[in-house]
Specification:
The protein has two domains: 163 residues, Rossmann fold (3-Layer(aba) Sandwich); 77 residues, 2-Layer Sandwich (Alpha-Beta Plaits), CATH 3.30.70. 38% of the residues lie in helices and 21% in strands. The longest helix is centred in the middle third of the chain and has 22 residues. Bound molecules: ligand L263DTV3.
Length: 257
């Protein structure tokens, strides 16, 4: 699907526009804090969020606190930690889980990750309170395999005992409470806005839960190459996602670089 084709199909409808952040709205970067949106993306999202007939939601594995810094926008949903916490367009904050009850567990997992990484270069441990991510984007491939195997063995008893799950992502392994996934947030929004046609844009394994939860809408996989997915269509890059946002804003000028 081309961005122009997709926008032409949905432009006239009332839309529930849901987007993943990393790899979808913003291109991947070597480190999480470097994946920041351009002013053009921020403008496009802000315009959409202020347009009648458009409900906009960004649904990410990042913490809500971090998303609010990355996307200093108003009038849209920001959902963090795979939908475990979110801010609504009116600025109210909601949490499905109490971070306090997971703190001890995440601290234990963090200590295990530190032990397995053992000071090796290229790893990043991110304790998000409700989940823990072990990034290996900049690690040597052999070191990544060895460390991840060790980490999996180390955490297995804890995972099973405490109802957690392990999710492989793009150069990251994440541990989060079972039952928390982007699909739950998508379902909530679809039911809250039944009149709006749902579209979900995502690039990663965690977005598959969201595609599967769409109630009569379309999932748009963001990937340069075809791959198995529950999505309906695909776009090749965040750049193409940006073009769809521009077109939905009624601004089809080519040439976002
Ligand atoms: O659900 P998402 O919005 O796609 O968030 C998924 C994870 O994204 C971040 O990590 C990933 O992106 C970084 C920046 O491009 C990259 O450096 C890292 O290797 C990727 O794993 C974020 O740090 C995680 O907390 C999110 O779960």
């Amino acid at each position: 699907m081309t961005p122009d084709g997709l926008a032409a199909l949905v432009r006239a409808r009332e839309l529930l526009l849901m987007l993943d952040y990393d790899g979808t709205l913003v291109p991947m970067a070597p480190l999480p804090h470097l994946a920041t949106p351009s002013p053009e993306i921020l403008n496009a999202l802000q315009r959409l969020a202020g347009t009648p007939g458009r409900v906009v939601a960004v649904i990410s594995g990042r913490r809500l606190e971090e998303l609010q810094v990355m996307l200093p926008l108003t009038g849209l949903y920001l959902a963090g930690t795979h939908g475990a916490e979110w801010r609504d367009p009116g600025g109210r904050i909601y949490r499905r889980l109490d971070p306090a009850s997971f703190k001890k567990m995440m601290d234990i997992l963090e200590a295990m990750a530190v032990e397995c990484v053992n000071g090796k270069d290229g790893f990043l441990i991110e304790n998000k309170g409700l989940s823990l991510a072990l990034h290996y984007r900049r690690a040597e491939p052999a070191a990544a395999v060895e460390t991840l195997n060790k980490f999996h063995r180390r955490i297995l008893p804890v995972i099973n005992k405490h109802g957690l799950e392990v999710l492989p992502g793009r150069k990251v392994v994440e541990i989060r409470p079972r039952g928390v996934n982007k699909g739950i947030m998508v379902q909530y929004l679809c039911r809250r806005y039944p009149q709006a046609f749902p579209l979900y844009f995502g690039d990663d394994r965690t977005d598959e839960d969201a595609f599967a939860a769409l109630e009569g809408g379309w999932g748009i996989l963001v990937s340069p190459a075809p791959r198995p997915s529950a999505a309906t269509f695909s776009l090749s890059s965040p750049r193409e996602v940006y073009r769809v946002l521009l077109l939905l804003n009624g601004n089809g000028r080519p040439g976002w670089q």
